[in-house]
Amino acid sequence: MAGRIPQNFIDEVVARTDIVEIIGTRIALKKAGREWKACCPFHGEKTPSFTVSQTKQFYHCFGCGAHGTALGFLIEHDRMSFVEAVEDLANRAGLEIPREGPSTPSDRDRQESDLFALMTQADQHFRECLRDSDRAKDYLKGRGLSGETAARYHLGYAPPGWDAVLKKFGATEAGRTALSDCGLIIERSGDSDKAVSNGFYDRFRDRVMFPIRDSRGRVVGFGGRVIDQGEPKYLNSPETALFHKGRELYGLYEARQELRQINQLLIVEGYMDVVRLAQAGIHYAVATLGTATTPEHLNRLFRVCSDVVFCFDGDRAGRQAAWRALETSLTHARDGRQLKFLFLPDGHDPDTLVAEEGKAAFEQRLSQAMPLSEYLVTHLAQQIDRDTVDGRAKLAELARPLVQKLPAGVYRELLIDRLASEVRMPSPRLAGLLGLNETQSGNTTTGGYTRPLAPTRSYGRGNLTSQAIARVLQNPGAARYLGPVESLRQGVEDRGLEVLLELVQCLHGEPHLSSAQLVERWRDRPEHERLSELTSMPLPELKEEAIGLELAAIIEKIRAERGPERRWSELIAKAESVGLNEAEKAELLTLQRQARATATQARH
Q1: pLDDT of 306 higher than 90
Q2: Who has greater pLDDT, 195 or 577?
Q3: 20 to 30 Å CA-CA from 420: which of 238, 329, 373, 509?
């Protein structure tokens, strides 16, 4: 990718960084044997379960499972992007970041860059159209928006007519293709009677335009609102290579630009709500893009701050939307986070309410928002008669699937206490009936803190392969005791073994790499998260040579289970179904000879 930070520079930055120093400037670390300990900064706890290994240059929390390198800590704790984290550590080390040359970007990079450039031009075009339209400007003024606010949010206007954007940017076939890829034009259907140019027409017509920007400030899509009556009131860009509505949040980029420290985020339903709240001085509102809140939305929000408030109308539709948001949020409700719900008076949305009451009154309402736990209990309690045994039993049954979604921890225990008071039953007894006893839910207890066990995930031969990968990650020097990778791989097709041998091959070429450097090399690959977990996997302390011998034994066992006999069976099955090519026939003949030789040796 053009402008990419070279891998060898990332290796050097990681090598020059002391993770204890980085984390120690943010939380109070105490020496505990060969490691350092603290209360975890990612969840609330009283007994320290957060450890930092100076040897591995890695951190791990036995409570919530958080783990990573110094780069990962800056990304998760300080809400930095990867590039920002590398820049921060490079500055500390007195290094200047080089960039790989932009001369040979891939076709995909080039196409993406062209689409971003077109979206920027379209944004500028809509802004120019707004300046030229008294009608659109009068509409925004009537909604209480100033020119300064419109400029800050790059508000624009798509003029009426079917081909304003087409005429400006779609004179060529390539231009029309790019406009279509950006979702700015629509191809005419066979029975359409619309006036079109070259078989296409503009998607946005006679609408106030709200550009949607990603975390880097690039325009990835648009939302358009009708000025007069019309349906739909809001029209959004379709899913494109640049725009995925289930990930993006309108106003998040602007909020991060305006506020150095974001203490809470308010989720509203409309673009105009975000803009009008910002004009009133409430710069921490964001909007979903014509869709319900998704897990990806919540992941993005919680990377910015730990307090999120959903804001909904107080009518039936608003409460239905709020309950859907609650159900989505349950898996994200963990210690150290706050999820709340604010319901507005009938007939009001944030836009109209802040205009009527002002910032102070609106924020007063916000301070009284209902916590997720309270909303869950009161919503369910409204459906039953708490004065009867049957009603209280039904309440527990209604709560069961919801509470089971909550991550184990203090938050879930407190919610169970709250439910128990409604059901009129001791908390431990209710937890057992809900299927949440530690022995039933797969939890364990560390230092008085209830936590979920790490999920069992594996590559290929499961725990066997995972143990081998963990040994290589935690003891990179042990790889030198293994033979050539090609001989280890021969005759075996196993994804887990491939990951293991790729790590070994990397260490054969660069034996100086540390655990942290190895893990960082996989950051952009699907296996990164699992490798990070394995770097913290408890292992017996052995000398490097002993670990090397263990690795060799594990690999041989994997090869025995995934080796010639399995391959022979695969080739026989293929021969009987579709036939073999010449190479496969030769391979099968070799396996047969090896089997006969092995049998002969066994008889003698």
Answers
A1: no
A2: 577
A3: 329
Phi and psi angles of residue 66, each rounded to the nearest 5 degrees, phi first: -60, 140
Q: What's the CA angle centered on 540, arms 535 and 545, to 5 degrees?
A: 90
- Before 232, cis peptide (omega within 30)? yes
Q: Please check the confidence at residue 453 and state whether its pLDDT lies above 80.
A: no
Which candidate, 290, 265, 288, places its Cα nearest to that of 278?
265
Top-tier CATH class for 7-93: alpha beta
pLDDT at 437 over 80: no
| Residue carrying the six token digits 């939890």 | 443
Q: Contact at 8 Å (CB) between 74 and 60? A: no
pLDDT reading at 73 higher than 80: yes
CA pair distance 339, 354, nearest whole angstrom: 22
The model's confidence at residue 223, banded by pLDDT at 50, 70 and 90, is very high
Element housing 446 (H / E): strand 443-446
Cβ atoms of 264 and 311 within 8 Å: the answer is no
Give the full edge-to-edge strand order of the sheet including 219-226.
156-158, 207-213, 219-226, 234-236
- In sequence order, which residues have a C-beta less than 8 Å from that of residue 94 and are 6 or more positions away? none
pLDDT in the model for residue 191: 54
What whole-number distance in Å separates Cα of residue 46 and Cα of residue 59?
A: 18
How many helices, marked H, and strands, marked E, lie in the chain? 28, 18
Q: Is the pLDDT of residue 423 over 80?
A: yes
Residue 576 neighbours by CB distance under 10 Å: 9
Phi, psi of 138 (to 5 degrees): -65, -35
Q: Binning pLDDT at 50, 70 and 90, where does residue 440 land?
A: very low
Tokens of 255: 């909020």
Instruction: Measure the CA–CA gap between 154 and 381, rounded to whole angstroms.
Output: 45
- Contact by Cβ (8 Å): 183, 237: yes
Using an 8 Å Cβ cutoff, are 589 and 572 in contact? no
216 half-sphere exposure, CB direction, 13 A CA radius: 9
Q: How far apart are CA 155 and CA 151, in angstroms?
A: 6
- Locate the domains of the chain by residue range: 7-93, 106-243, 383-452, 463-562, 567-603
Name the CATH code of domain 463-562 (choices 1.10.860.10, 3.30.1490.150, 3.40.50.1240, 3.40.30.80): 1.10.860.10
- What confidence score (pLDDT) does residue 198 get? 67
What local confidence, expressed as pLDDT, does residue 117 receive? 94
463-562 has the same fold as 7-93: no
Q: Which residues contact 602 (CB under 8 A, 6 or more apart)?
A: none
- pLDDT greater than 70 at residue 447: no
Q: Which two tokens stand for residue 448?
A: 């008085």
Which band of pLDDT confidence, cut at 50, 70 and 90, is reported for residue 565?
low
Q: Cβ(193)–Cβ(212) under 8 Å?
A: no
Q: Give the separation between CA 405 and CA 152, rounded to whole angstroms.
A: 40
Mean pLDDT of the region 487-510: 76
